């Protein structure tokens, strides 16, 4: 039988069509497998990229002071903020909302322990009462440095502060000289239990004991300006005749000044403070306060924080860092005008 060329071509085309149809499903089934192979290759690349990301090794430090309403603590905070910024780290600043409150400061320390901060600079409100909290910080393995006020127990990397007894002794002798060794002095004491309050008042007592012609009347005003005003108002009524007022910090001295000016009894009375706060320096410049002691809060807190950095770096740290105290009166107040907050 003779097959025509046309029939032969058609037959070949039909066979080719059947072969292509049979191969198409196999190609389609192979495509997803190829995609899976691509995906399997991409996943390890994502893991490698994640491993290449740098780890965050920044640190968080805390500064805990005695209150929120005192320029002295604000200066401490500013200095610590500068230091952590230089290291690319973070500072948490905390203080009791009720000034010098032991229970609240204790809670703040416990919160910091729970947060597992890298280090704490603490200004204890009560040198004995804060010991259990200090010991809990020690147990948690968090390095702690004390600034301004010492604690009577627990372990610390360092204690950074002025010598409070010596500094207040200078103020007391200055006042005795102004009084000519005689007169009546009202002393506003600090918060009971605070090492700074104890040391400063002890210095006043010792100096005045050596000058028997000076009579001393004392009462605590809890380091507070508002309390200083309140206490002074009462003392003016109970002791209307007095020659000098000594506050063991500036805030109490400023509160007493306000009460005296309101009562019209400030003229001719010598007033001393302690700290070198903005308002106290301004009052000395204006002739309303006689003298204060600049104890350089920024240096105290800054040295304590730098000691924590050194400790964490494995360097030796001195157990005691002494801050220089500088007496400020009318003769040199111009040198301290940068402390005045405009």
Sequence-ordered SSE layout with sheet pairings:
Elements: H1 5-52, E1 60-64, H2 71-87, E2 90-94, H3 102-115, E3 119-122, H4 131-139, E4 144-147, E5 159-161, H5 164-179, E6 183-189, H6 195-209, E7 214-220, H7 225-238, E8 244-247, H8 250-263, E9 270-272, H9 278-285, E10 292-294, H10 297-312, E11 320-322, E12 326-328
Parallel strand pairs: 1-2, 1-3, 3-4, 4-5, 5-11, 6-7, 6-8, 8-9
Antiparallel strand pairs: 10-12
What would your notes on this structure say?
The protein is an alpha/beta fold and 342 residues long. It has two domains: 128 residues, Response regulator (Rossmann fold); 131 residues, 3-Layer(aba) Sandwich (Rossmann fold), CATH 3.40.50.2300. The chain is built from ten helices and twelve strands. The strands form three sheets. The protein has a six-stranded parallel β-sheet with strand order 2-1-3-4-5-11, sandwiched between helices. A four-stranded parallel β-sheet has the order 7-6-8-9, with helices on both faces. Strands 10-12 form a two-stranded antiparallel sheet. β6, α6 and β7 form a beta-alpha-beta unit. α2 packs parallel to α10 and α3 packs parallel to α4. The chain is elongated. The termini are far apart. The N terminus is likely disordered.
